[in-house]
Predict the structure.
Amino acid sequence: MSYRDTPYFSVGRATDLSGFDRTLYRALEILPGFLSIGTIVMTVVLSYYSPRFAALFIIIFDLYWFFKTIYLSIHLRYNWKRMKYMLALDWDPLLANLKYDHITHVVILPFFNEAEELVEKSIISLLQAQWDAKNIIIVLAGEEKAGDTASDIALKMKSKYGSQFAHFLCTVHPKEVPGEMPGKGSNISYAAEQVRLQVFDVQKIAYTNILVSAFDIDTVVYPNYFKCLTWNFLTVPNPHKTSFQPVPIYNNNIWEAPAFSRVVAMSATFWQMIQQERPERLATFSSHAVSFEALYRVGYWQKNMVSEDSRIFWNLFVANDGDYSVVPMAYPVSMDANLAGSFWSTMLSVYKQQRRWSWGVENVPYVILACIKNKAIPLGKKIRAVLTQLEGFWSLATNPIMIFLLGWLPIALGGRLFRTTILSYNLPVITSYIMYFSMIGLVVSAMVSFSFLPPRPTSYKKRDTLYMAIQWVLIPLTITVFGAIPALEAQTRLLLGKYMGFWVTPKHREPPRK
Amino acid sequence: MQPLSNKKRRWYLYIFTVLFFVLIPVVILFVQGYRLDKGFLLVRVGGMYVGGIDSDAEIFLNGILQKNVKSLKKGFFIENILPARYQVSIKKEWYTPWSKEIMVHAEKVSEMYPLLIPRKLKTQDIPAEIERDQNFFDSATSTTMVANDMFTRTLTLFKKNKVSEPLIRRSVVIWNDANKIQYRLMEESPAVLPSLCGSLDCTATSTVYITDKKITHIDFYPGRNDVILFAVSDGIYAVEMDNRPPQQVVQIYSGKNPDFRVENNENLYIKEGQRIFQVEV
């Protein structure tokens, strides 16, 4: 029996299993939170009972973080060069030697109650792309729960732009389907099945020739997206065992978003850029592309969990016994930075979005269980997958807290005798030196972010450009408040079995400045 | 353009991993006070922390001006000092010099909080009466002397004097026991300066100062819990509780049977006869 036919394949949470499997899965759900909270608690306890050991641990940790930062910065800088190269590349000569007329692109745009102009902007970008729109099928995937206004927008878009594409399908995902969690995963899965039944099967399009781009409603493609994607699809050794990952750049509304939202958004972009140069660690994230053949074989995106974007990679990874990978396209797609109606609602929105992304930790028990149950996955891949997942979520939740908050702890809790040691005096000094060196990294970040910045709108002043550089001093705050803390919350929720549902990020657009 | 090659990535990883593991013992030894001497032998050093002084003050170690001092925690940190006994002197223009013999131990930081007192204290008289304008008519004004509220209020401070009653400030208790000033620490709190607690048992009673003159009043020096002010017949003195030699005892005011009060750990008032004045410390 193939792994995808087992109950483990589509498990969303421990309660989907029974008996020992359920207990095992529950223990695996506890594991990430246990490691992260355990690390922080251990540091606090050690600071009190053995401040010398705690101080040495923190200093070694600082050192580790320092080298890790440099190592990752090298990857970031390289991907920056590669992305600029890819953006400037003339793709036609590369495609000229390939046969690609048989490829059909499907773009799924799930939406809930977003504004019409936002939906329209994404569709227009697809029309403006350097690709024959008559070869692109659009699926505007709405939700019944969103009501008539959303349906009206979908129909309006179809009547306005439908004729310019190969096909323009508007789907309405029914509400309250048993066994489904409302959210993007269930919506786009429904949309994928509808387009299969209503278009592919009717027009007899071979599934192996269909490339699906699963976008967010705010995803705006750059001109050569389809060329880059097609070239990658046709040149990888095994296109149906490969997903394709563009780099999400949160540029659509970057000038309107407040500084902390911009820093959080760009940090997410940087992380994706770093991962692009570490493909063995790359899982699909947010907007991604995959062959329909591969999707159809696993029953599309999982419908009973939140992080469908990364889970689809793990579904495909375990279904193919580890013989599945992600190709980093090093080509961007543009999305919205978080922006709500007011400063505080934007803060809250950023926090909730980061918590939802951190909820990707729900993949940890899934991956470990699959590595236990699926004997066909090679051991090396199992070890790498598990360690990558555990280390990633542990780092996210603990590193900023360890670096920015716990450095002083042995001094505060360590008592009189420790406070008069050379070690206690050196602890803040070493920590601050690492901060100074990290400032160099911030300069690199500022440079990279500038190169992708859309032109300053005329309604913005020169000083707004200056703020774009200065904003990077917020990094210690943003990676703690909008990185570690939401990650800890997500892991604690999983640890306690308080499962999260899907939260739709509000897509607000500021009216132009006068 | 291909992704960063695995070969390059592996090289970076190896280099940083090797650097990390090489640096771990180096950093661990360094932060704990291990240094290489001129003969490339590993030696253990200590440090000194001079707290509560600003950058105008000069620090001398065995008479040599220290230039390589680090500004840290509202004071100065001097690193890389070999374990030994040192004569530490602090000099600041317009202030009384301060010195102390300090023992530096390996891997430890000897802390000190010098008592620097202006050579000439700035004082401001608080008159018993002040002038006040009075309008009799729209066009004519005259002045009259009225009681000064501040004088009256300050005078009430001097009416309370329980010289033998213990005073507490930030976990430090002081009292006058028949012209013997004593102190005890209530607990090991961060507010207690390490210079007050050299022994393992920090809560034992210690004597700060003994005099054959009659102590008429004691209190903490404004803003500090390690310096005591006391009044005797010939003046007012400040004495350090840090009993490492030489213990600093500085006369801050000379007069006949003067009295003083410290208000809100901030304001120092001196009264001699019927005259009261505020002192800037």
Notes: Chain B is about 15% helix and 45% strand.
